Automatic annotation (TrEMBL):
This is Chromosome partitioning protein ParB. It holds the Pfam family ParBc_2. It comes from Mesorhizobium erdmanii. It comes from the Bacteria.
Length: 207
């Protein structure tokens, strides 16, 4: 087990990173790409990456499994950035594949749900960052947080929890046809009592 007080930081090829989820919000990825493009060449390979380290768990064959910042990793890949700094939060490389995946799942380091919100077998998780599938509701959840619909929370995969909440209430055709209009509906829903169980909820209260 890695001591979290003494993180090990090392450069890793973005193409070699292993996801621990099936989807990302491609609108979120596009925003990350804009952020990367706004940096000059030196910052892309130096200070910028130093401030955006990707947390990983070492798995079988010493592969790096990403536990957060999948959107950043996908954006770096699409922008042609070859390497990223990773910080190892746990070394589980001694486990076999089945035991490793079980531990990831039970520690909240995995989100094996597809773009329809359905839980899938571990085998459905892509082998590479480039194979992650778009989930428009994950993009909605990210935008919802930026617009103050809910607060940033330490709950693992909290944006996906919000994405599933929105998925069950806003028609996918409405999201595809007019994202901005769908976001107005999402903001209203986020402030309602039906959402008060969700991580980071900041709706009205009588307390």
């Amino acid at each position: 087990m890695i001591d979290p007080r003494e993180p090990i930081v090392t450069p890793v090829a973005v193409a070699d990173l292993r996801p621990t989820q099936i989807t990302v919000g491609m609108r979120e990825v596009a925003l990350k790409r804009q952020m990367i493009r706004s940096q000059d060449a030196r910052k892309k390979t130096g200070a910028f990456l130093g401030k955006h380290m990707v947390p990983v768990v070492l798995g079988p064959k010493n592969r790096n499994y990403v536990t957060d910042h999948h959107h950043l990793a996908r954006a770096l890949l699409e922008e042609g950035v070859k390497d990223v700094l990773v910080t190892v939060i746990s070394d589980l490389s001694a486990l076999d594949k089945d035991a490793f995946l079980f531990v990831l799942d039970n520690r909240g380091w995995m989100h094996p749900f597809d773009e329809n919100g359905r839980r899938r077998d571990y085998s459905a998780i892509p082998k590479t960052i480039g194979e992650l599938i778009d989930d428009p509701y994950r993009s909605m959840a990210g935008e919802l947080r930026r617009q103050g619909g809910f607060a940033k929370d330490t709950t693992p995969f909290s944006e996906f929890i919000w994405a599933d909440f929105l998925r069950r209430r806003i028609d996918p055709d409405a999201v595809a046809k007019n994202f901005d209009k769908a976001m107005k509906e999402a903001l209203t829903l986020a402030k309602g009592k039906d959402a008060d169980y969700l991580p980071g909820w900041c709706g009205p209260t009588t307390d």
